[in-house]
Design brief:
The structure is a single chain. Strand 3 and strand 4 form a beta hairpin. The longest helix has 12 residues. This protein is elongated. A five-stranded antiparallel β-sheet has the order 1-3-4-5-2. The protein is an alpha+beta fold. The relative contact order is 0.22.
Length: about 160
């Protein structure tokens, strides 16, 4: 088993999904990653978005950004890892997301995505998270909100 597979298995095995009743207002979880050339290539391939602003340095140098920027969806995807693997965790169903891009995310930026429980909706048993994405300079690059259905039973009890 490779080191990466071992790491992923350990992460999976350590993950404990929280139920609606276990989640508290103010609970928070974060994920950080440096955006790489590989991320851009993979995202372009999977999404079909080969916009030159992401893939061609010469073209990107003629834009207001002056260099290539990462696809918005690359950084946005970080919240999926938080919600699906950490808080609430395994068994979470993603219902809704809204986001606003504040600054560009560049290739080689390190982005930290932080999700914080903002509100619980008793009737739906849903949870609303406030989400922020910041770069390595602590600048806000994206702000958003997500609504999820946590698992009905804790992964601890599985």
């Amino acid at each position: 088993m490779t080191a990466q597979l071992r790491l992923n298995k350990e992460l999976y095995m350590s993950t404990t999904g929280k139920t609606y009743h276990e989640i508290k207002i103010g609970d928070t979880a974060s994920f950080s990653k440096t955006i790489t050339e590989t991320d851009i290539s993979f995202y372009s391939s999977i999404s079909g978005d080969f916009n030159l602003i992401h893939t061609n340095e010469e073209y990107a140098s003629t834009t207001p950004f002056q260099k290539r920027i990462a696809h918005g969806g690359v950084a946005l995807s970080f919240v999926g890892g938080i919600l699906g693997s950490h808080l609430p965790g395994q068994g979470t169903i993603f219902l809704e997301m809204r986001s606003t891009f504040k600054k560009p995310v560049y290739i080689h930026d390190t982005i930290t995505c932080t999700a914080t429980v903002k509100k619980k909706l008793d009737r739906l048993k849903a949870v609303i998270f406030s989400v922020v994405w910041k770069n390595q300079r602590k600048e806000l690059v994206i702000r958003g909100e997500c609504k999820v259905l946590p698992p009905e039973k804790s992964a601890k009890s599985n």
